[in-house]
Amino acid sequence: MGPDVQHQSLTYTPSEISHHYGPRVHLLSSPLGLSLLAKLGHPLTRQPEVSHLLKMLYDQLFDCVVDTLFPRAYCEVETRMRHWHPEGVYHGEIIDPEVSAVSIGLARAGTYPSHICFEKLNYLLNPDRVRQDHFYIARTSDESGRVTGVTVAGSKIGGPVDGAIVLFPDPMGATGGTLAEAYRHYTERVGGKPRCLVALHLIVTPEYLKHVRTECPDLHVFALRLDRGLSAPEVLQSCPGLLWDREKGLNEHQYIVPGAGGLGEILNNAWC
Predict the structure, then answer these.
(1) Is 125 strand, coil or helix?
(2) CA 108 to CA 113: how far, in whole Å?
(3) Which of 36, 44, 63, 249 could bridge to 205 as Cys pair (CB 3.0-4.6 Å)?
(4) What's the mean per-residue pLDDT of the chain?
């Protein structure tokens, strides 16, 4: 018996909201994701529930990125039924297990999300082709609390990224400063040409998208929610990105509204 045609050329199209931010931006349309994210951002949600919700959300984000961007390979894999039937073999596409992938832990809010992605990558791919790097980066702010930039305190990077899929799992895409600095580091200083670079966010703002579209032209952005809650009512009634210059999702301290309220602090029980 030959292979089944239905498994030979798989297609996958993520469910996304319509927008005008460009083809590399993927704003997922998921009632499940938005439900869990609403619970994550609620004032009464604390540890250990925060970490459990974060894992569920990043499992969903990661799976969507893999199905959308990761290359496939043809395989023939025996199943347990092969013992009784010669037809007990799966013939068809799977994610190519020999692709290289690197997950970047952006301390501090991105440390746990990166671990979630790293762990799943080791199940999905040849572990010899999977790596997790650590990048210590933080916002800088002035006396009024307004963000003025980012500072890099150090890194632990395991080598070049030539041909690798590079993942930046960072929950909040607020200003774009952190992601842009990490993107520059991996495209200009680490060595090698990545296969693709992907940011995985729970929430992004229009300001973030504008920043990374300019500073990170090859970056794919996946997010569960776009927050532009400080925009005028008529802007909120428009298709996202249509009135991009009038959209606003950041307050005077560059925190996201509606947002999730200092997720890095909540994840780490660090209130100082």
Answers:
(1) coil
(2) 10
(3) 249
(4) 92
